[in-house]
């Protein structure tokens, strides 16, 4: 009887003990919102730059262009979406209004729009055509509405802000769900301004009254992600070449930055380990030298290899690649751009074809509470919701993958479980070569995804050593190609 009682007590004690250790790691703040998590998962988004510039061969229209210059022989939004979707892009952001102020939808607040152009005899609405097509082909739709408007006579006055908000209302109530809203930091300077032809500079910090404008939009669509230099949804990465820093924190201190502030490019690329808000970097880049279509750039379309390098330097550093592919005057994505995108997709498929981590034996230095919820095998189980974690006080650790035979290793892909915050500060990678461990990488952050490319190496063991972390490391996956 006594021994039964002892057994029961012991079991209860063990149960309580193991329950305690099964507790998942507490989040390290700040953490991403649901909408930001969904944004991270997209990885590849496309930009469409299309306006009067496509026909005047400019990059920044003055705002004085006649509506009649906007004259595409067609608008083949079905082709834009199908080409981009096939290449793996999950969302498309359209320049509904660029700096020239010309609107691709028939806004009732201005005459400077498609409604006064020859396109469909003024009955066209390109925002509708593209958003409908996105819905049909299940690609997310986003909008770019330039805060700077070189056409408006009242740009610089309070009434322009009301105009801008009225336009946001049109976009956010008439075209279905919008996943991202792009607020370009470029604003203020010379322009037509309703015939004034002068230079106008606004106080970028206060003129737009962003908090109020964003609240206004959130009331219409609460899940929208706001892009601007400084967020608050996602931040600019500090350059337009499609790369973020190798150290890339998803956090940044919002009290030190604002949209349009000069000299913050480096900070935007790295983020800040002690940042008080989760505002990940988005890497915007064009497939051509310019953002708008120019025939003279037909031979300058980036090659699949260049696009792949951009992918490694953006997505592969925990960021998102926002690639601009501008339609031409026929309203098509040009054949050269389509070919480059097909080549890019083929390269991605080829380089990341077989994940050899799946057939490896995983050894880890320690497991949180020795609980099966947090074991090393979770790293290769293809389940984004499972992860390997250590005990709270353990902020370093090792993951080793062993294969039965020699393999050629070219890429290592790591992911942190960012729902609980970004943690890893420093790690290195070694491979076993001729019986000796050889260091092939010394790196800092991981984040949503980190892809390391090596000179192909033959090995049967790879070891990832996390040297330091803001709290116990929480790693959701390891892939090897
Ligand atoms: C910049 C703009 O000035 C370019 O024309 C383009 O729209 C790019 C995405 O953002 O700031």
Could you characterize the architecture of this molecule?
The chain folds into 2 domains: 34-351, TIM Barrel (Alpha-Beta Barrel), CATH 3.20.20.80; 356-480, Galactose-binding domain-like (Jelly Rolls). 24% of the residues lie in helices and 25% in strands. The protein has helices spanning 2-21, 34-42, 53-56, 77-86, 126-137, 158-174, 210-220, 265-270, 304-314, 335-351; strands at residues 44-48, 91-97, 140-145, 180-182, 189-191, 198-200, 225-228, 234-236, 251-252, 277-278, 281-286, 320-324, 361-364, 388-389, 397-416, 424-433, 436-443, 450-469, 474-480. The strands form 4 sheets. The protein has an 8-stranded parallel barrel with strand order 1-2-3-4-7-8-11-12, surrounded by 4 helices. Strands 13, 14, 15, 16, 17, 18 and 19 form a 7-stranded antiparallel sheet that branches. A two-stranded antiparallel sheet has the order 5-6. The protein is globular. Bound molecules: beta-L-fucopyranose. Residues 59, 184, 186, 284, 291 line the site of beta-L-fucopyranose.
């Amino acid at each position: 009887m006594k021994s039964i009682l002892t057994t029961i007590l012991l079991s209860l004690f063990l149960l309580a003990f193991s329950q305690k250790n099964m507790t998942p790691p507490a989040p390290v703040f700040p953490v991403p919102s649901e909408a930001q998590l969904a944004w991270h998962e997209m990885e590849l988004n496309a930009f469409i730059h299309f306006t009067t510039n496509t026909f005047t061969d400019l990059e920044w229209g003055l705002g004085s262009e006649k509506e009649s210059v906007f004259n595409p022989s067609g608008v083949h939004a079905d082709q834009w979406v199908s080409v981009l979707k096939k290449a793996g892009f999950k969302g498309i952001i359209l320049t509904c209004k660029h700096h020239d102020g010309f609107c691709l939808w028939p806004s009732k607040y201005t005459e400077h729009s498609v409604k006064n152009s020859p396109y469909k005899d003024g009955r066209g609405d390109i925002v509708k055509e593209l958003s409908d097509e996105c819905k049909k082909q299940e690609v997310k739709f986003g909008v770019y509405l330039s805060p700077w408007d070189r056409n408006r006579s009242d740009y610089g006055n309070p009434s322009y802000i009301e105009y801008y908000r009225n336009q946001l209302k049109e976009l956010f109530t008439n075209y279905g769900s919008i996943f991202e809203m792009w607020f370009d930091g470029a604003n203020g300077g010379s322009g037509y301004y309703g015939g004034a032809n002068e230079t106008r500079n606004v106080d970028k910090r206060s003129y737009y009254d962003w908090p109020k404008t964003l609240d206004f939009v959130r009331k219409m669509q609460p899940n929208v992600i706001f892009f601007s230099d400084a967020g608050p949804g996602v931040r600019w990465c500090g350059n337009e070449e499609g790369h973020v820093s190798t150290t890339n924190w998803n956090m940044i201190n919002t009290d030190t930055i604002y949209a349009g502030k000069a000299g913050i490019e480096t900070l935007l690329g790295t983020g800040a380990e002690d940042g008080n808000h989760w505002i990940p970097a988005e890497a915007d880049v064009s497939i051509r030298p310019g953002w708008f279509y120019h025939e003279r750039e037909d031979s300058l379309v980036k090659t699949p290899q260049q696009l792949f390098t951009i992918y490694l330097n953006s997505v592969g550093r925990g960021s998102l690649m926002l690639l601009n592919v501008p339609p031409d005057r026929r309203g098509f994505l040009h054949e050269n751009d389509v070919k480059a995108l097909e080549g890019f997709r083929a390269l991605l498929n080829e380089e990341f074809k077989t994940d050899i981590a799946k057939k490896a034996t995983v050894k880890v230095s320690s497991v949180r509470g020795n609980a099966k919820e947090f074991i090393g095998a979770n790293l290769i189980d293809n389940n984004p919701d499972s992860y390997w974690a250590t005990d709270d006080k353990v902020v370093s650790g090792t993951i080793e993958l062993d294969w039965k035979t020699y393999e050629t290793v070219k890429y290592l892909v790591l992911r942190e479980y960012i729902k609980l915050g970004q943690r890893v500060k420093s790690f290195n990678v070694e491979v076993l070569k001729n019986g000796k461990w050889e260091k092939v990488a010394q790196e800092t952050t991981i984040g949503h995804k980190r892809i390391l490319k090596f000179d192909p190496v033959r090995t049967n063991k790879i070891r990832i050593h996390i040297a330091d972390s803001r709290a116990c490391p929480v790693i959701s996956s390891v892939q090897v190609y």
